Amino acid sequence: MSSQLVSSSYFDLQILQPRAAAVTETAITDQGLPESWKDRASWALELELSMRGAGFTWTSADVRHTKKTWTPTVGNRVHSILLHVLPALGICLTIIRYIYASDLYPESHGQTVTFDDLAFPKQFLLTAALGGFLMTAFSLGHSMFAIMLAPLKPHPLSYFPPLYTTRVWDLTSVRDFWSYGWHRLFSRLFLVYGVWPGEWVERKLTGKSPDRPADVGKVLGGFVSSAFVHSFAAYTVVGGVLEDALGEAKFFTGCGIAVIAEEIVKRLVTQHRRRIKRTPGGDQALALNRWYDAMIGRVWWISVILYNGRHFARGWVKAGLVREMSGM
CA-to-CA distance for 180 and 167, rounded, in angstroms? Predict the structure, then answer.
């Protein structure tokens, strides 16, 4: 709802002229979703620039992937920085420097060594270290800004919801990782320019009605839009070489395909287990979930992220970012 004052401003009536007549207020229902592409672009840009974590927009509650309403205090954030973020960041940078100095530093080998020249274990280790660095660096920047702007409460500038809502070891799928484990700073951007267009395309191609889910288009649209945004940024970093910027596109597209694949497997396994329970002599007390499901899920999502993440790491090495991070 938005308010509209029929008379003068509240300040004029109540502060400058305390004995003036009361303010007449009318309520007008907001339109809701943007109607034109210009409205959509303006809305998405505004929400992209107001990146504060899961739940933040300037005007309304965002889509939350958590029921938590608690906002960390300054003390909580300082504790997190000192005991969790900085040690993890230090470990990641140490691994990056070690691999670069021992395997990628040109002066050590007399020739240029590429990411693909590394043994597979070191490729995965470097990829994991770069991913951990990104995760902790986002957390550090987010917390530091939250601490600096905390004195502005209750102004919206001081509102920084938790950046991550689920611990890494509680994730059991690729979908879990991107929905709960990673930050959602660009969630509205990808929703407007990826998820909604993807759903629209799927419904047009399949003839689905608007009230039916369009999950494939939703997932692919979100990840393809993410691939474009990250590839465009990488394109500028690697000096305008398109081939070197496609690593990010491969990474996010691969993750989108993995989400669809794991959902298909999950549904097939669930249907199979339900049939077993319904068969004569079947164990009716047997749960649809097994004790080993979570373990298989963890191995699966970590493997997908690390394998596809090598495309990301390859571009970082070629662009010289790994060298800068190693301080060499």
Answer: 8
